[in-house]
Amino acid sequence: MSLLGSIINGVLSIVGALTQQQTNGAPNTGVIRSYDFTVSRGQIAPDGYQKDVLLINNQFPGPLIEANWGDTIQVTVHNQISNPSEGTSMHWHGLLQKGTPWYDGIPSVGQCPIAPGSSFTYTFQASLYGTTWYHSHYSAQYAGGLFGPLIIHGPSNAQYDIDLGPVMINDWYHEEYFSILESVVDPGGNPRPASDNNLINGKMDFDCSTKAAGDNTPCTDNAGLSRFKFTTGKTHRLRFINGGSQGIQRISIDQHNMTIIANDFVPIPTPEAPPQHSGCAPTFPPPAVPQTNPTPWQPSTTTKPTRPRPPPAKPWNIPDPGTCANDDLSLSVPYYSITPPTPATTKELSISFYVNETGNFLWTLGGTSFRGNYNHPVLSQAQAGNLSFPAEWNVQNFGTNSSVRIVVNNLTPASHPMHLHGHNMEILSEGPGSWDGSSITNPSNPIRRDVQLVRANGHMVMQYDTDNPDSDSGCADMYELDELYE
Ligand SMILES: *[C@@H]1O[C@H](CO)[C@@H](O)[C@H](O)[C@H]1NC(C)=O
Ligand SMILES: *[C@@H]1O[C@H](CO)[C@@H](O)[C@H](O)[C@H]1NC(C)=O
Ligand SMILES: *[C@@H]1O[C@H](CO)[C@@H](O)[C@H](O)[C@H]1NC(C)=O
Ligand SMILES: *[C@@H]1O[C@H](CO)[C@@H](O)[C@H](O)[C@H]1NC(C)=O
């Protein structure tokens, strides 16, 4: 868990029988996909309510990054955040960064923040395929708008006619992110403030009459919704991304069944009867009015023309399988089977919290509240051969163990999305209370995830092989486990 402040259209056709080798190693296309990102402050009103935000190339959400499996993605980030200036960094969510841990984008773990006024180029391989996103990993900047979609085209395990592209969904706070952060860590503050809205591809309506009394922020009703073009009788691929800072999302499309074809970067087979899929929080009406691809946000200059309103939502009744829990693990198995070995070592890490001497609320993982040092990343110290880390860096040294099982017991009444960098976690167990020490769901081929929710007062058991070394330092697996609420 890191500190509060830090934290596809198949271009190739269906490949029925990829070998195990291919599932672990991407092809090397030699193609470089270059992007240039200028990060700066700006003001937008994606739901009609004007807000100070951080933008990439003046866009929100940030530009779509697209590549084919095996390409090299190269992104130069120019930090032009000023008044006040801040560091920044960019994390490429779910990419393994094999051989390139220093491009994972985590200040205090793999790099120093990109200083104000300077630039940094990330270069890494599109080693997995599917749908993901990138986001700032500095402070809570992504609650301020610093994120965007990332698609890697590759083999597809499902037939579909139309790729509707990314559907980014995120909670949206009208308060500027830094002041939220201050209130989150303030004595007597709210560690989990509620958001004001929920955006789909950076758009949503907001009822300006619900603004707090005395709030003079400019606000426009009926700012507009994202629209998608559905064709009757065709099968559509939707790439859902939760780009929110805290909100767990629960997705359904009125009166239509969805078939889940991939969780994170892990393709899953398409069963005859589609599993019901859920997270938690609101359901959405279908984006009903035909239009071509969703348009990126543009500053509003003139009064918007009146658009037809979508019909009222008739959401499915899909009960939450727990208290804000992912689906039952037994419902999903990966397309490519991997059987986890008996782990070489097992570690239990409990999630808890405490109030420190100055009255600040702090989350802990394994008894430690993480506090990194932006000037001294873990990776560079390890590369220098010094493995004596300050306790508050919360470094777990698994030595030469070939596989690691981690039992996360959540002793708090709040669910937490757990996310391991550098690996797809094999999720062995998830449920209420503590793990019984032996139950494993689908032991011969457990679901693999980039992010897994550990439910409130529940547990999650995950395992990974230590197959992602930093070749320069000879250190196995310098990767962080974080809680995505940052
Ligand atoms: C959705 O799937 C269920 C279970 O297979 C089926 O009974 C129902 O008819 C389907 N509904 C639609 C609208 O396809
Ligand atoms: C308590 O935590 C806050 C927030 O991380 C920090 O600013 C403060 O220095 C801590 N207090 C002590 C006494 O360590
Ligand atoms: C190793 O790093 C720690 C802090 O990260 C530092 O206190 C210590 O002096 C370093 N040891 C050596 C031998 O450089
Ligand atoms: C395996 O990991 C444990 C920590 O869980 C560590 O104490 C032990 O030294 C490691 N063993 C090897 C052989 O590196």
> How far is it from the N-terminal to the C-terminal residue, by CA?
9 Å
Characterize the overall form: globular
Strand order of the largest sheet: 15-14-16-21-18-19
Per the CATH scheme, the topology name of one domain is Immunoglobulin-like
List of distinct ligands in this structure: 2-acetamido-2-deoxy-beta-D-glucopyranose
Profile the largest sheet.
6 strands, mixed
Number of strand elements: 22
Q: What is the tally of helical segments?
A: 3
Tell me the strand percentage band.
25-35%
Low-confidence stretches: 1-23, 274-304, 471-478
Q: Measured on Cα atoms, how large is the radius of gyration?
A: 22 Å
Q: Can you name the CATH architecture of one domain?
A: Sandwich
Query: Which whole number gives the mean pLDDT?
Result: 84
Label the structural class. mainly beta
Give the full name of the CATH homologous superfamily of one domain: Cupredoxins -  blue copper proteins
CATH class of one domain: Mainly Beta
What is the oligomeric state here? Answer: single chain
Order of helices and strands: HEEEEEEEEEHEEEEEEHEEEEEEE
What does this protein look like?
The chain is mainly beta and 486 residues long. It has a domain at 345-481: Cupredoxins -  blue copper proteins (Immunoglobulin-like). 4% of the residues lie in helices and 28% in strands. It is built from three helices and 22 strands. The chain has helices spanning 20-24, 177-185, 378-383, and strands spanning 32-44, 51-56, 65-68, 72-79, 90-92, 119-125, 130-136, 147-153, 162-172, 197-200, 236-242, 262-263, 266-267, 345-355, 361-365, 403-410, 416-420, 425-432, 448-449, 451-454, 458-465, 481-483. A six-stranded mixed sheet has the order 15-14-16-21-18-19, with no helix packed on it. The chain has a four-stranded mixed sheet with strand order 2-1-4-6, with no helix packed on it. It is globular and about 60 Å long. 41% of the residues are buried.
